[in-house]
Specification:
The protein has eight helices and 17 strands. It folds into two domains: 117 residues, Aminotransferase class 4, branched-chain amino acid transferase, N-terminal domain (D-amino Acid Aminotransferase, Chain A, domain 1, 2-Layer Sandwich), CATH 3.30.470.10; 162 residues, D-amino Acid Aminotransferase, subunit A, domain 2 (D-amino Acid Aminotransferase, Chain A, domain 2), CATH 3.20.10.10.
């Protein structure tokens, strides 16, 4: 992966290669951490972080659900992120804040372990590839089900929960696909390994609801607003597995994947990206890069001068 010069850890900027934790860190052994995936984009005003405050709000909510208080305020984390992007000289980058239980007593009770925080950023292209964003990706339905709310907390973007997505991703890649689609515990379409799912049929856009064990994506909400502003009907409802194959269009959204069309599922062709997908994708890209005045409020411009 591409590296940067600095990472922010617990209030200090440290060299990338010196950003280390103890091997008995609780989060390393038990997955007791929460994180966010955020992107900054190059705009006419400089680097701008997309929906930064919304991401920090979700980070705080994720931590709360696992009985952790943020060790720094959201304003402090925002300022640290701005300075980190500036110090590393990035015009655009991916940003990863992580809040985790640190080194302390071992065992399943984490409450006496300190809560620590770090922020890293690096240059990262399209998660599912530029070719995927342009022409769509091939996906399979995973044999693994999405984590159930009876067992864990799908609404929390928690580190340990992503073992579920790791298994599905490995299965997909080993089978020759770019992505996997997980079903929820009722057999309805849930999400990709790191993306929300949208199905287009007869001009109506459907997406699984929050009760389907999804993570309520920031880009999901952005695309839903854009689609409605364009005049499309957007419905949150349970989506049957067969609806993917019978859809006119399917696309995925996520911070890493941005908006990526899906051209086939389980070797059944859906087709190339359609007109609805292309319209929404075009406006979404403009919003990300500061070209859509209507959505400028979503951008948090980095005011710390870049050394570049």
């Amino acid at each position: 992966m591409s590296t940067a010069d600095l990472i922010w850890m617990n209030g200090e900027f440290v060299a990338w290669e010196d950003a280390k934790v103890h091997v008995l860190t609780h989060g390393l052994h038990y997955g007791t951490g929460v994180f966010e995936g955020i992107r900054a984009y190059e705009t006419a005003e400089g680097p701008a972080i997309f929906r930064h405050r919304d991401h920090l709000d979700r980070l705080e909510a994720s931590a709360k659900l696992y009985y952790m208080d943020l060790p720094f305020s959201k304003d402090d984390l925002r300022e640290a992120t701005h300075e980190l992007v500036g110090r590393n000289g990035f015009k655009s980058c991916y940003i990863r804040p992580l809040v985790y239980r640190g080194y302390g007593p071992m065992g399943l009770n984490p409450l006496d372990n300190p809560v620590e925080a770090m922020i890293a950023c690096w240059e990262w292209g399209a998660y599912l590839g530029e070719e995927g964003k342009l022409n769509g990706v091939r996906a399979r339905t995973s044999s693994w089900r999405r984590i159930s709310p009876d067992s864990l907390i799908p609404h929390s973007k928690a580190s340990g929960q992503y073992l579920n997505s790791v298994l599905a991703k490995i299965e997909a890649v080993k089978s020759g696909y770019e992505e996997a689609i997980l079903l929820d515990d009722h057999g309805h379409v849930c999400e990709g390994t790191g993306e929300n799912v949208f199905v287009v049929k007869d001009g109506v856009i459907c997406t699984p609801p929050q009760t389907a064990s999804i993570l309520d994506g920031i880009n999901r909400k952005s695309v839903m607003q854009i689609a409605r502003d364009l005049g499309f009907e957007v419905v949150e409802r349970d989506v049957a597995r067969a609806e993917l194959a019978l859809a006119d269009e399917v696309f995925l959204t996520g911070t890493a994947a941005e908006l990526t069309p899906m051209r086939s599922i389980d070797d059944i062709e859906i087709g190339p990206p359609g007109e609805v997908t292309r319209q929404i994708q075009s406006v979404f890209e403009d919003a990300l890069c500061g070209r859509a005045e209507q959505y400028r409020e979503w951008l948090d411009v980095v005011r710390v001068p870049s050394r570049a």
